[in-house]
Amino acid sequence: MTTDASKGRLVIAVDGPAASGKGTLARRLAAHYAMPYLDTGLLYRMVARAVLEAGHDIRDAEAAGAIVSTFDESAFAEDSLRGREIGEAASVVAAMPAVRSGLIARQRRFAAQSGGAVLDGRDIGTVICPQARAKLFVTATPEVRAARRHKELAGRGEAATFEGILADIRRRDARDSGRSDAPLKAADDAVILDTSALTIEEAVAKAIAIVDARRAG
Ligand SMILES: Nc1ncnc2c1ncn2[C@@H]1O[C@H](COP(=O)(O)OP(=O)(O)O)[C@@H](O)[C@H]1O
Ligand SMILES: Nc1ccn([C@@H]2O[C@H](COP(=O)(O)OP(=O)(O)O)[C@@H](O)[C@H]2O)c(=O)n1
Predict the structure, then answer these.
(1) Is 142 annotated as contributing to ligand binding?
(2) Quick check: ipTM above 0.85?
(3) How far is the CA of 1 from the centre of ligand 2 (A)?
(4) What is the CATH number of the domain that holds 27?
(5) What is the C-alpha end-to-end distance of the chain, expressed in Å?
């Protein structure tokens, strides 16, 4: 088996825009290869929640920069981080250089585990793990992503219109792609996987084939 070039380990980087299906694929890849998985979006969501809970304005970069070095990951229930508003707030703090740099070490530590790791986010293949052996950039049209998120949020009991979610997704795409620090973009050596017309099982099969090809390459 050929693994992470530098350390003999397989690291899988999964990036992509909101509701493209990257978390679903990353989780399934982690199960398939029996590797630990980190959803890095949750870290930005935790910082956003901590900033708001401390009573700061979400645009307060100084407050967010101070919180990023002290926040306690175990203090947040995952379910409380998945909502629509926290996703929006996360993309605001994620554009702040102090927040991004404050989260780099813990992500790289996770990726450095001896058994390898799967991480998903926006900048895993470009900034956090540029040496990752396998990189996927997962996409889908904004309309397909909005429909998926709409269904997901409805399942959580969160009322929102399809049009409202589509507007959220477009705004978040623009903010994530337009920021100067670690913008959302595919790494040069990433394989693009468009899931617009794929079922979850079809997308998983393609993702495994892509990773297997990288392991063999
Ligand atoms: N290929 C797919 N077809 C249909 N639904 C999907 C597909 N991939 C993911 N989903 C669903 O879309 C929603 C968003 O997927 P998720 O993996 O959380 O996206 P992301 O991590 O990119 O935000 C979830 O409810 C998930 O079950
Ligand atoms: N590696 C990452 C992960 C998330 N993020 C930011 O965090 C926000 C929430 O990320 P997420 O992955 O939880 O969001 P979804 O794609 O699940 O909607 C994104 O809109 C990005 O602004 C980032 O900048 N870098």
Answers:
(1) no
(2) yes
(3) 32
(4) 3.40.50.300
(5) 10
- 172 CB less than 6 Å from ligand 2? yes
The total number of structural domains that make up the chain: 1
166-175 pLDDT per residue, tens: 999 999 999 9
Residue range of the domain that includes 49: 5-216
Give the global pTM: 0.96
